[in-house]
Amino acid sequence: MSRKSKFLSMLLRHKPETIGLTLDRNGWADVNDLLLRLKKANRPLAREELEEIVVGNDKKRFTLSPDKSRIRAAQGHSFDIDLGLAPSTPPQLLFHGTARSNLDSIFSNGLEAKGRNQVHLSADEETALRVGSRHGKPVVLSVDAQGMQKEGHQFFRADNGVWLTDFVPAGFLGFGKRPL
Q: Which of 32, 37, 109, 160 has its CA 20 to 30 A from that of 171?
């Protein structure tokens, strides 16, 4: 990911105040305001570059409004935000990539958001493996998402396809394509 994309991710997911940017309650920033504040912060970005970052980001981290006047991070915020996502019915299994060194804690406490608003889950094992690789020796956990939903847990699907939930109890976790 380019430095510009990383900086944009930091602004829209974690620290908009770094450049004095204001997000609305749904995480949207005005594109013109963002570009002006980036310029004032000596981090200029042309509108075309911004659109290329949005389209070219392999994880689809950013969403532009249909009229391209607003932008937001698709998910991954570390501050309170309401993405306005409706609860969705997940597939039977979802996946979570993590480092092997985290397994004891996960199987004791479940999957917690840890500095994010929600736990991030993938619809496929390959994506989860890539995510887990960023944290150490990777392992992919399966999540019995439909079992969780039957017990009242809600799931949301972000603009970029990432599945979100508040917490995954350890009893719904397993390895591979079968929960424990």
A: 160
